[in-house]
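Notes from the pairing session

We agreed to fold both candidates in a single pass and log them together. This is the raw record for the first candidate, unedited. Please don't reformat it; downstream parsing expects exactly this layout.

Candidate A
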Amino acid sequence: MRRIQLEEIQFVMTDSGGFRVTGVDDKAVEVQVPLIDVRAAVVPPKPERPGYYLILSMLLDQSESGKHPLLFLGEHEDGIQSSLLKKLKDYAARLSVREVYADESNEGFFSNLWRQFKSVREVRVYRALHTADLDYGIALVREWLEDGALSVPKYTPTILCRQLGSMTTETLKLMTAIDPLRYLFSGFVNDPPSFLRSRSQEQVATNWYY
C-alpha cells in the first residue's frame, strides 16, 4: 500500500461498518481513506507539564509488515483539565472517536473523563492497559515505528513528531505524548477492533475446515 500521510484532517464519518476520513495528503490533494477504528488517549496536566490527548485511527489497508498502520488524526496540549477534556469531547465528535483511554489509578481525573462522556452514546471510556509497564509501551512504540506502521504528517508540525524525534531516557518523564501513544498502541494490540477479531476467527475456521 502507498504510505498515507495526511497534513490536514477535515472530518471522519462512519462508512459500511467502518469509518472514512476526509483530509488533505502530503501532495495537497483531498483524499478519502478507509479506516477500521478511531480511538483516543489522554493524560491530565501536572505541575511539570500540560495535559495532552492524542487521537489515532487504524487503517483498513495493511502495510508490508502485515500491520494495519495507525494514522495520526489529532492532538492537543492544555494546562487546564476542564479545557482539555472539553476540547477532547468536541474533537471526539468530529473525528468519530469510539474509545478513550486513561490511567484509572488517577481516580479523580478518570472520573472527570467518564463524566465528560457519560452522555455520549457512541464513546466508551476505558482504563488504559499496561500503564505501569513503561518498558513494554516503549517497546511497542519502537516496533511499530521501525515497521513504518505509524503514519504522521510529513510537513505539518505536531507535538507527537517533535517529541518522538527527541525521545531519550532523560526526556521521557517530560514528554506529554508518550503515555497516550503507548496507551493507544497497547489498546490496539491487546484489544484489536472487532473487525480484525472476526476476520481472525473466520481464518481459524477456514484453516480447521481444510
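Candidate B (folded immediately after A)
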Amino acid sequence: MAFAFVEFTKLKKLLGLDKDDVEDYPQLEFLVESVQDAIEDYCGRLFEYATVTNERVNLSFESRMVPLLRLPIESITEVRVVTSATSSTTTAYEITPYGIRLDIAHGGYSSQFDYENAVGGNVWIEVDYVGGYETSPPGPVQRAAYMQMGYEYQNIDNIGAQSVTTEGGTINRPELGLLKEVKSRLQKYIHPAKMGAGF
C-alpha cells in the first residue's frame, strides 16, 4: 500500500463530499500537499518511507550528533566523513531515535579545530539510510492533518483573508498557517534538532 498522509475516503466524510473520485476535487490535491509540507516543515522531519542517499549534515564536534530527517530510521547503509579533499567510510556510530551519534573522539582529537586541521578542512557527514512510515504517519499527526485540511478546505475561497464579511456580519480569522490545536497535536513529533536540543 502506498503512503498517504490523508485518505480521500476519510476526507470525503469529514468534508461532506458527494463524488467518489478525488480527481473531481482538484483543490484537494493541492491542499493535501500543502498541509503535508506545512506539517513536515513545522516538525522539522519527513514522514514518508524512502531510501535516502547522500543526506549531508555539518558535523557538530561537541555533540557528535548527526540529525536525520526521514524518521523513524529503519537502517543505515553507509556513513561517510567528507571534507573538501577526502571522503572516507566510518562504522564508528550508533543509531539514535533522531539520527546517529558519531564516535569521532576515538581518533584522539581534542577539539573541532584539531580534527578539521587533521582531515583537511570543514567536515560533513553523508548518510545513506532507509527511514519513514510505509503507509501513513502516526495517528496524532494524521488527525492533525485532517483538522487542518478541514479548516482550509472550508475556507478555500477566503485563503489569506484576515476577516470575512457575510450577510450575518464579519468574522475574524487566524492568519494563514497551522492552527493552534494542530500545532499542539504535533508537539511530540517535532525533531529535537529543530529546537536546538540534543538527542
